[in-house]
Amino acid sequence: MEALKKLQQLPQQEAKMPALFVGHGSPMNAVEENEFTRGWASMAKGVATPKAILVVSAHWQTKGTAVTAMAKPRTIHDFYGFPRELFEVQYNAPGSPETAEELQRLVKKTELHLDHEWGLDHGTWSVLKHIYPKADIPVLQLSLDYTKSAQWHYELAQELAQLRQKGVLIVGSGNIVHNLRTLNWHKPDEALDWATEVNEQVKQQILSGSPEALIKYEQLGRAASLAIPTPEHYLPLLYTLGLQQGEEQVQFLNDKMQLGSISMTSVRIG
C-alpha cells in the first residue's frame, strides 16, 4: 500500500504524442550519417519533448511480456561481426521505474513483468541515438511475447494508446520486409519484386485505415511469406498501428528497400 501511495502517475496533457514505427535495418546505422539516419532525426520535428519513450524492439523476444524497470538500463550490443566502433557506442539514457510500474497497472491483457536485467538493445539505441542524441529522456523497452498471435499483439498495443496522452512516445522498431537469407549484396539498391510488392501493399492498407489484413498478414500470399519469414521484425509495426486513434495523419519516411529484401520504410502517425 505504501508503494502505491508513492507511485506518481503521469498526468494527462492536451497534446497527444505521435506514434512511430522505425525501419531500423543494419546496426551500422548507429555510427553512420546517411539518408536513413537523417530521416529518423526528422521524426521528432515539431514534437514536444517526451516525458518518457517506450520502444517495442524486434530484438527482445520473451515468453510472457516484460518491461524494463531499471533506473539505468545498459546498452546491449546484441550482434557480432561488426567494427569495433559499433561495440563502443553507449546510449546512456536513464530508465523510469515509475513509468514501468504505471504501465504494469495499465495493462490488463497480460501480466506484465518488471525486468531489471535486459536494457536497451540495438533496435532501440541505434535509432534513438539519431532521434534524441542527448540521451536525456527516460527510455523503456517492452518485450515481444513470441507465444502470442499478431492479433494479440495488436490488442495489447490498443491498451497502451492512452500513454500517448501522458507524454509517452511509443516507438515500434523493426522492418516491414526483413529476409536476411535473400539479401542482394551485388546490387544493394535493387529491390526484389516480392519485397516491393509487400511493402507497397502494407502501405496501402495503412492508408486505408483497415488493419485487419495487416494483422492477418500470413494470408497475404507467397510474397508475404518471403517478406515476413518470421514475425519479430513485423510485429512492432502492429504496435504502432494499434496506437492509432481515429483518422490521424499518416506519414511515410525512408521509404526505400535496402539490399533487396529489407524495407527501411518508417511510419509516423499523428
From TrEMBL:
GO molecular-function term, one example from the UniProt record: zinc ion binding
Keyword Oxidoreductase among record annotations: yes
Matches recorded under SUPFAM superfamilies: LigB-like
Span of domain Extradiol ring-cleavage dioxygenase class III enzyme subunit B: 34-265
Cofactor(s) essential for the protein: Zn(2+)
Transmembrane feature ranges: none
Key words, A-Z: Dioxygenase, Metal-binding, Oxidoreductase, Zinc
Root EC class: oxidoreductase
EC number(s) reported in the record: 1.13.11.29
InterPro entries, per database record: Extradiol_dOase_DODA, Xdiol_dOase_suB
Alphabetized PANTHER family for the sequence: 4,5-DOPA DIOXYGENASE EXTRADIOL-LIKE PROTEIN
Family per similarity comment: Belongs to the DODA-type extradiol aromatic ring-opening dioxygenase family.
Entry protein name: 4,5-DOPA dioxygenase extradiol
Source lineage: Bacteria, Pseudomonadati, Bacteroidota, Cytophagia, Cytophagales
